[in-house]
């Protein structure tokens, strides 16, 4: 991936997007699609904040140059040319970052990598708004992840032991103002299997905006190796073999009957499940891919989900 021309100094008005731009830089080589949408989010947000002040106009112009260069480099990548694929890509990436941190948290392994994962997941959920309004699940995940990042960071900073797992959210913590929270390295190791999934509001287990999640899901496989120097002892964790869900045999013999009429919304949902499956395969997540393909097939053959 070719290097970009550096951006001018960030205008004070754009402080709220500084961490999204940092996340974009961190992903230029790791995941250019994520980098592209982080910049797009920063661009759109910056335009709403101030597009008239000379320093802001200059900054946004240079950011636009980076966007255009990155889009040209990505060429015909479906995650850029098709919004539904791009949205699925971002949701899957943010989800895996979140689950990595959540599993570490529930296991009582508190360190800078998991703080960074919680915070990065919250930033990427911000970025998903380039595709439209967030789902209620995404809003809850963002709020929880951002608060957890601040809570654990402050505990470690003050020499206190954080409370593992879901706890009451304190509204007076402003993670956006905390530079240290967003400055740690990204995780490199998948967590040990966990039977629990985040459910602060009694969400059904193993569900996230329609995507089926296997327990013990891990951080994206293409995160770079970063030395651990957090002072927290951690054991080397081996990836857990994936368990492929059983396929319903009736799906193979089911044929769409003549009296079944699929609506445009049915076709759109089926396409979305297929795109989620394709995005999951990018992370070698067979279980999620199979489950979403099953949902698409059932919808197309029965007209029901």
TrEMBL record:
Which BP terms from GO are recorded? late endosome to vacuole transport via multivesicular body sorting pathway; protein transport
* All copies of domain Vta1 C-terminal, residue ranges: 264-301
The keyword NADP belongs to this UniProt entry's keyword annotation: no
The primary location reported for this protein is: cytoplasm
Q: Which UniProt keywords apply?
A: Acetylation, Cytoplasm, Endosome, Membrane, Protein transport, Transport
> Quick one: where's region Disordered?
160-244
A single Pfam family it belongs to is Vta1_C
Could you describe the subunit structure of this protein? Interacts with VPS4B. Interacts with CHMP1B. Interacts with CHMP2A; the interaction probably involves the open conformation of (polymerized) CHMP2A. Interacts with CHMP3. Interacts with CHMP5; the interaction involves soluble CHMP5. Interacts with IST1.
Family in the record: Belongs to the VTA1 family.
What is this protein identified as? Vacuolar protein sorting-associated protein VTA1 homolog
Instruction: Name the species this protein comes from.
Output: Erinaceus europaeus
